[in-house]
């Protein structure tokens, strides 16, 4: 683990050596507060798939301002949350119940929740992109 400042310094230190350009490009795509490699993979798929970039782990509140939880990838303007449900969500009953309750709170507060499973990301990720695109359009986004 490292900080983004240390990582940026290491990339700068590479100068023009082989791989430096790729490292600078990768550094530009890093976002803080990301919880998992698969969430990052999904965010990059979204960005490269022509959809707007979501906010990572945004705090979601209800109409009174009460905290409901963090949305994995959130479109605040469209009240839409993209949740990546990894295998760990299904292996432990306590984790699964926690996640179900959190998503239920989001929906009761009138947030659209799009749940993505690893199988949606198979191949080129087209199924995931289609679900997200459809959800954003239904929420008012125009390509």
From TrEMBL:
Residue numbers spanned by region Disordered: 1-35
Low complexity bias spans: 8-26
Protein name per the record: DUF559 domain-containing protein
Species annotation: Glaciihabitans arcticus
């Amino acid at each position: 683990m490292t900080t983004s400042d240390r990582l940026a310094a290491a990339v700068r230190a590479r100068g023009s050596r082989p791989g430096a350009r790729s490292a600078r490009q990768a550094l530009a795509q890093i976002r803080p507060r990301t919880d998992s490699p698969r969430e990052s993979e999904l965010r990059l798929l979204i960005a490269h798939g022509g959809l707007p970039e979501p906010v990572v782990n945004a705090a979601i509140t209800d109409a009174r301002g009460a905290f409901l939880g963090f949305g994995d990838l959130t479109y605040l303007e469209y009240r839409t949350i993209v949740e990546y449900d990894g295998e760990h969500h299904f292996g432990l009953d306590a984790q699964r119940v926690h996640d179900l309750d959190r998503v239920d709170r989001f929906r009761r507060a009138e947030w659209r929740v799009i749940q993505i499973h690893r199988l949606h990301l198979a191949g080129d990720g087209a199924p995931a992109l289609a679900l997200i695109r459809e959800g954003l359009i239904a929420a008012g986004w125009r390509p």
